[in-house]
Amino acid sequence: MQDGPNIPVANPGEYAITFNESTGVYSFVCQCLSGGIVFDEQSDIDNFATNYPGCVRVLGNVNIKDAVTGTINNLNGLAQLTEINGDMTIGQFPGPSNINLLSLSGLNNINSIGGTLSISSNSALATLSGLNGLTSIGEHLYISNNNLLINLSGLSVLNSISGGININGNDMLTTLDDLIGLNSIGSFLYIGANSSLATVSGLNGINSLGGTLEIWNNGALISISGLNGLTSLGGSLQISSNDALANMSGLNGLSSIFGDLFIYNNNSLPNVSGLNGLSSLDGGFIFKAMMPAAYDKSSQAFYCG
């Protein structure tokens, strides 16, 4: 076994050293902030490179939340970062927050987030451009209540999420096309209350979900054809209160659901013919114009468990 290099380290724990067996080359990265960091004004961001010189990997959580002063207007001071081991939170529910932050430019070099990425209640953010280098998320992705967000530009190279995705309450969001690179979601997928969202195209690369799929209260949604590649669900399927949805043709490839199937309050949906390929359902089934106030699986004729 080859001995490691003699690298002087002033403060042990600030460097991670790795050895590439194929090339025989050692490399090290500077890491910092095991307790995480909160940025709540622009000066915190501008001074980051001075306060933490060379630090490219944050071990703890990163929180960007200017809830009061409105001074945060750019993230350029964070350009040296390449990895976040913990969670990354941009914005603060219920908001408004980061009221002068128009772009996520400055985060372009981040390629992985070990925990959850949450982008919430950013009242001026129109796109996610700036996350263009992000390829993987270790836990969940939450995008919610960003009133001016029109697309997910910036997430086009994201290919893996070990947890789930929740996209809800983004009134101006029209498309999910920038999730086209995504091929793996370990848990749930929730898409709800995005009043301008007309399709879910962009999710074509996903063939299985480890958890539940819920699509609800998207008033402009006319098609779910972006889910054509989906073959199995590890949880339940709920499609509800999508008033413009007229067919289920986007789920033709779905063959198994390891949970319940709820389809209700979709006032333009005449039938569930798009589910013709479904051969296995472990839970109950309900298809109604209106959902009853209380649903008792044991009393339903369609219960298959």
Key traits:
disordered C terminus, globular, 305 residues, eleven-stranded parallel sheet, mainly beta, disordered N terminus, 2 domains, single chain, 24 nucleotide stem-loop, u2 snrnp hairpin iv. U2 a', Chain A
Task: Describe the fold and architecture.
- By secondary structure, this protein is mostly beta strands.
- It has two domains: 33-187, 24 nucleotide stem-loop, u2 snrnp hairpin iv. U2 a', Chain A (Alpha-Beta Horseshoe), CATH 3.80.20; 193-305.
- Helices cover 3% and strands 25% of the residues.
- The chain is built from two helices and 23 strands.
- It has helices at residues 42-46, 48-51, and strands at residues 15-20, 25-32, 37-39, 57-58, 62-64, 83-84, 88-90, 112-113, 117-120, 136-137, 141-144, 160-161, 165-168, 184-185, 189-192, 208-209, 213-216, 232-233, 237-240, 256-257, 261-264, 280-281, 285-288.
- The strands form three sheets. It has an eleven-stranded parallel sheet with strand order 3-5-7-9-11-13-15-17-19-21-23. An eight-stranded mixed sheet has the order 1-2-4-6-8-10-12-14, with no helix packed on it. Strands 16-18-20-22 form a four-stranded parallel sheet, with no helix packed on it.
- Strand 1 and strand 2 (25-32) form a beta hairpin.
- The longest helix is centred in the N-terminal third of the chain and has 5 residues, at 42-46.
- It starts with 14 loop residues before the first strand and ends in a 17-residue tail after the last strand.
